Amino acid sequence: MNGRVVRVAAGQGFWGDWLEAPVRQVRGGPIDYLMMDYLAEVTMSIMQKQKSRDPRAGYARDFVPLMERILPDLVERGIKVTSNAGGVNPRGCAEAVLDVARRLGLRGRLRVGLVSGDDILDRLDELISRGHPLTDMETGRPLSDILDRVLSANAYLGMAPIVEALRGEADVVVTGRVTDTGLTLGPIFHEFGWSPDDWDKVAAGTVAGHIIECGAQASGGNLLKGWRAVRGMENPGFPIVEASEDASFVVTKHPETGGLVSVASVTEQLVYEMGDPRSYITPDGVADFTTIRLRQAGKDRVQVSGIRGGPRTPMLKVSIAYFYGYKAVGTLVYSWPEAYDKARAADRIIRRRLEALGLEYEQILTEFVGVDATHGRLSGPPGPDLPEVQLRIGVRARERAPVERFTREIAPLVLTGPPSVTGFAGGRPAVEEIVAYWPALIDRHEIEPRVRVEILEA
Amino acid sequence: MPKTARRPKAAARSVQLRFLAHARSGDKGNTANVGLIALQPEFYPLLEREVTVARVARHFKGMVSGVDRFELPNLHALNFLLRDALDGGGTISLKTDAQGKVYSTALLRMEIPVPAALARRFARA
């Protein structure tokens, strides 16, 4: 393929992904942009909680030491970064990056683009009172039902503020809730100067973003087809998009890295978390996945072309997190012989004890790991000679007390239940607070006029 | 090693989907999606014909409340949405597989009828 390409490299598939990946993407070969997606659906609520304790917190803290490691490389090689590491405090994140840059002697040599305006937690009352019910897209309930329990609320922004920041010559763009696809679309649209209303190009960039947004899951990680033949996963090559001006692109990875990029690895990622393939909706447009054409174009190179799309919708998705209740999961391991029968007997005992205590739960779920935890009844009856079975009991309640009491009912089974039990070294299970997700829609005119892009100098 | 299908009929035998397709699954709230991809392009028409909504719903009976199917002939793939598959989903679910990551392989357990000539390719001698 001739002509100019823009290389966008994925550095993280989620907050907590392999720490070495972004470093190797920067040093392992040529790239133009490092794309770092940190935000899962409930991540924002965790960050909101951290920010309420410390006003300087509320972003992906890992991002700052990472920048400390790679900023000199980025500056030397002219690589730019797009990241939603800013979470609910993009300003705090941007300032922390600037501090690091100054400490590294990069004063005057680094610009950070700061994108804000996605956070609508303080606007919920106002929005509801003006006729935006923020209905749960799954259940149809209005947000007013749980308004007093809301912990975070953010609109998903698209590529526009990223393009604006790059036009302002930002080297590192730090945002709040920008879509993972927007982090890839922004650099490509900026570099090629494409119109944001060119829907086929929006769709192509969206597909590119979707392919690399889960990191190595497109380049051999979690690959089912021929998984034994995937080599070198101790050093997985994370995916890189080489975008061309004709809106086709190649998915590849750096040389001398493990994993593989094949039609199969890209297809598995394409169908991941897919809904209606004809309408993959993002803030920037609607992509039609039934138009994607894939072709193996060399070793670890898959060419992607033919993508068609349609106009953006008038609505933006809003990600709301709210406090739901409590849960805990306890486990014990029963050994051969009759491991499954022992585990089932233990389950009956604990359930009767909970009932006798008069404790009420929204749900008690028992799974037998080794028998039915992954495929339920589809696994069929277990063999008679299983070496061991893990009993795994989970409970959920709106109140803390019954869950707390449950966590004290696991260990006693060791001396008061069926024999040959082990695997309780972890002690009492922890009571977890459940933060649940409430997906909603809002008119984009309520959000977009308030989105701000600032360029800050180190 | 491939497992032979059971219950041979006159013109068709059943074969487990794992010999015809690979898959990846994920979640959207309380819905799991399974993308089912033909292992070889020539298997796709068979998948499209035999891996019907009714058959998938029967396979997952008691585990999901409804099934939708979408076709992606360009990728030799079908996408299934399995409603209410995740016991609340996300952070609410108590399931080991709260995010539906292994519904993919659960679907590959399903058997579909295939022409006898094709079934013989998966049969042990």
What's this, in brief?
With 458 residues, chain A is an alpha+beta fold. Chain A has helices spanning 20-27, 43-53, 63-77, 90-103, 124-129, 160-167, 180-192, 199-212, 263-270, 339-356, 400-406, 413-416; strands spanning 5-12, 33-36, 80-83, 111-116, 150-155, 172-174, 240-244, 249-252, 280-282, 285-288, 293-296, 302-305, 308-310, 315-335, 363-369, 388-397, 421-422, 432-443, 452-457.
Please tag this protein with its features:
heterodimer; A: 458 residues; alpha+beta; Alpha-Beta Plaits; 2 domains; 10-stranded mixed β-sheet; 6-stranded antiparallel β-sheet; 12 helices; 28% helix; globular; B: 125 residues; 4-stranded antiparallel β-sheet; two-stranded antiparallel sheet; 4 helices; 22% helix
Report on this model:
By secondary structure, chain A is α+β, with helices and mostly antiparallel strands. Chain A has helices spanning 20-27, 43-53, 63-77, 90-103, 124-129, 160-167, 180-192, 199-212, 263-270, 339-356, 400-406, 413-416, and strands spanning 5-12, 33-36, 80-83, 111-116, 150-155, 172-174, 240-244, 249-252, 280-282, 285-288, 293-296, 302-305, 308-310, 315-335, 363-369, 388-397, 421-422, 432-443, 452-457. Chain A folds into two domains: 5-118 and 156-313, no CATH class; 321-438, Alpha-Beta Plaits. Chain A is built from twelve helices and 19 strands. In chain A, the strands form three sheets. In chain A, strands 11-12-8-7-1-2-3-6-4-19 form a ten-stranded mixed β-sheet, with helices on both faces. In chain A, strand 7 (240-244) and strand 8 (249-252) form a beta hairpin. In chain A, helix 6 (160-167) crosses helix 7 and helix 7 (180-192) crosses helix 8 (199-212). The longest helix of chain A has 18 residues, at 339-356. The radius of gyration of chain A is 25 Å and the shape is globular. Chain A starts with a strand and ends with a strand. The mean pLDDT of chain A is 96. Chain B is of the alpha+beta class. Chain B has one domain. Helices cover 22% and strands 32% of the residues of chain B. In chain B, the strands form two sheets. Chain B has a four-stranded antiparallel β-sheet. Chain B has a two-stranded antiparallel sheet with strand order 1-6. In chain B, a hairpin with a 4-residue loop joins strand 4 (66-72) and strand 5 (77-83). The longest helix of chain B has 7 residues, at 44-50. Chain B is elongated. The termini of chain B are close together. The model of chain B has no long low-confidence stretch (mean pLDDT 91). The A-B interface holds A 41-42, 138, 222, 224-225, 264, 267-278, 289-294, 324, 327, 329, 363, 365, 367, 369, 373-378, 392, 394-396, 434-437, 439 and B 22-30, 33, 35, 37, 39, 59-60, 62-63, 70-77, 79, 81, 87-88, 90-92, 94-97, 102, 104-106, 109.
